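Notebook entry, cofactor series.
This is the third protein in the set we're modelling with a bound small molecule. For this one the ligand is fe (ii) ion. I'm keeping the input format identical across the series so the outputs can be compared line by line later. Sequence and SMILES below, as received.
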Amino acid sequence: MSASDLDLASRTGLPESIAYLRRRFPAAEWRASPRYGQLARRWQHVHEGLRGEGGSLQVLTEAFANGQRPPEAFRREFTTLLGSHLNHLQLHHQMEDQFYFPRFRSLDERMVAGFDLLERDHEQIHHQLEQSAMAATRLLESLNSDREAQKVSTESFAARAAKLLALLDRHLSDEEDLVIPALLEHGEEPFD
Ligand SMILES: [Fe+2]
Ligand SMILES: [Fe+2]
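Returned structure with ligand:
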């Protein structure tokens, strides 16, 4: 498998060689397992929250594009939602990079390739996040301009946000494919 097959923007999942515990712990059985604990639950809950925030941003942007939100109401909702989404995402990745991923790598050397890959994903997501934030700034600035300028900047933000969400969706699923089976196999004590 070539490096480009594993690139976040183009891959469709993780190969068995990286998600080597997935066959033993299929996703459909995670939550019913007596070993599915607090940390696994919290992890999936945070991911659900991130997916939800990304989706809400898309819905809100679409509503504005369709004229269903006046600019001032849109500005308020958009600023709050975008701020908390970018903040949650950055904090979550920071905690994973600094605290959790090193611990997963130390559980078994076969984990190293997968968690290195997830860390590279974070860099790609961060780059896209910066692009989205810049597009969001231009969109907010355009709220003081005419409708045509607003249309252009709304479309540009929507395209950036869609890219970010696509990368994020892929990353979150693949991360769960590594993290949850690892927690079921090794238990949650190493993370206390
Ligand atoms: Fe992550
Ligand atoms: Fe995560």
